[in-house]
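ERR on first pass: missing label on line 2. Operator R.T. fixed the label and resubmitted. Corrected input:
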Amino acid sequence: MKEKDLLDDLGSIKNIMERSTKFISLSGLSGVMAGVYALIGAGYAFTVLQNGKSSGPDHSYREEVIIPLVFTGVAVLVLSVSTGIWLTIRKARRKGLSVWNPVSKALLVSGGIPLVTGGLFVIILLLHHHFGIISAACLIFYGLALVSASHHTFGDVKWLGIFEVLIGLAALAKPGYGFLLWVLGFGVMHILYGAIMHFKYDREVSA
Amino acid sequence: MKLALDNFDKAFENRIRLQAMSVLVANDSYDFNSLKELLDVTDGNLASHLKALEKEEYITVIKSFLGRKPNTRYQATKAGIAAFKKHLEALENLIKQQK
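pass 2 clean. output:
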């Protein structure tokens, strides 16, 4: 037994253990794209809100603005998720790894439970016209989903999740800032996080 | 250098066997196909190494069906996990000795 063999053995154990428990094909770039979509969506939502201000003295909005806002939110979600899936598959193929394996399944289940719960929660809020806390609910449930999913992927995802939860709680505490904090949580945070992930992990692959 | 080899587990001498065991220690259980993909080995190769680990009673096999497809899962036994830990310690000690 030579020392190099021993170190190789230990190295391969560490590598295999990590790959068997963590999904490392998540693309950082998809985070950036999700943030960009969120900002574009928010820009459009802002014009809807500007046009939808009621003439009353309380600065409230007419309820008609809700429908375009919901559509914008759903469009941002669908675009982000499909870009994320596409870029992740691409990254996995490049590395010669599979996308559908026990780890990615565990990732989807652990992230999916809080995420679907949050989605239903928000739909129920919409049906009951509790519009004020929707942006907070989106941020909080999304953050919890990230924290839960992070056990099966890069640890950095956990920090993004914790920040989303904190921003969500801030949105709940400061009702008037819901829109602004939504932009911060889904737009700015995603771009920041995606860029960090891209430079930290993705670049090594192409190099 | 020979003294530390006493703790060296012959069952883990092979790299693939060692890797397969490390996956099973890190996870509750793992299925054959995913294991094959992860370790990048052929069916026959993996099967023979898993058989060897099974013979040592370091792992157990759980056979079931997913619809009509057979699904074979593997799980590390307590003895297997203990042996793996001991083997890792032996590896570390060897490295320390050589320094």
